[in-house]
Amino acid sequence: MNLHLLNRSPFSSRIHDDVLNAMGPEDQLLLIEDGVNGALDNAEQHLAGLEGRLFALREDLESRGLLGRCAENVIVVDVDGFVALTEAADKTVSWF
Amino acid sequence: MSDVMTAPLAGDDAGMAAGDLLVMLRHGPHGSSWLREGLEAAMVAAAFGREVGLLFTGDGVMALLEGQQVGPLGQKGSDNLLAALEMYDVERCYVDAAALRARGLTAQDVTLLPVTLLEHDEVVALTTAFSRVLSF
């Protein structure tokens, strides 16, 4: 199982398409930096089919005022959670 | 299409008032310095007496959401700059309504600045009404 890290907003780039294309059925996706825009309710259309495997970094959500605006299927984790996800994964893949 | 929407915009009151510089803000806070630099450019131009307009479009609309904080790496964000715009007489602030909708946001989410919501035709009119456009 791989952990994918995405730091681009799905509203301003198409990189998330490449990420989804490269993700296995068990792989997890963590949204960081501008990637957390993908946690918005309306972004679900861009990141479909990741139930239970879609995470967003709390610190980046907070700084953007987005913590209370996340879609239900997004699991919010802090930096410690980031580390835990990294530990649990075979490797991480960065998308930027 | 109505006459109002198709009227040529040479600075008369047919539609958008003319201006010197339109600054388009297309990036959200924190991820890059584009947003801050665009706001700073707008304020510099205004300080030199130019008629400045701001258009928040794309991820730039995220700049207008309440509750922003200092970034985890100490990034300043942009909300403090928004608060300074009025002091520099940058009062013509516009938001691309389509960009808001795409993100599931509404006019109620735009709380940091008094703004005018623009639909597609009005965005076109805005870029026509200003003699220069800078994109950030």
What is the third-level CATH name, the topology of chain A?
A: Hypothetical Protein Ychn, Chain: A
Query: Quaternary state, please?
Result: heterodimer
CATH architecture of chain A: 3-Layer(aba) Sandwich
**Spatial gap, N to C terminus of chain B:** 31 Å
Q: Kindly provide the radius of gyration of chain A, computed on alpha-carbon positions and rounded to a whole number of angstroms.
A: 12 Å
Helical fraction of chain B equals 25-40%
Given the structure, what is the number of helices of chain B?
Answer: 5
Q: What number of structural domains do the residues of chain B give?
A: 1
Mean pLDDT level of chain B: 89
> What is the molecular shape of chain A?
globular
Largest interface: A-B, 22 and 25 residues
Overall strand count of chain A: 5
CATH architecture verdict of chain B: 3-Layer(aba) Sandwich
GO biological process, one term (chain A): tRNA wobble position uridine thiolation
Pfam family, one (chain A): DsrH
Protein name (chain A): Sulfurtransferase complex subunit TusB
Question: Which characteristics define this entry?
Answer:
heterodimer; A: 96 residues; Hypothetical Protein Ychn, Chain: A; 5-stranded parallel beta sheet; globular; B: 136 residues; alpha/beta; 29% helix; disordered N terminus; Sulphur_relay_TusB/DsrH (chain A); DsrEFH-like (chain A); Sulfurtransferase complex subunit TusB (chain A)
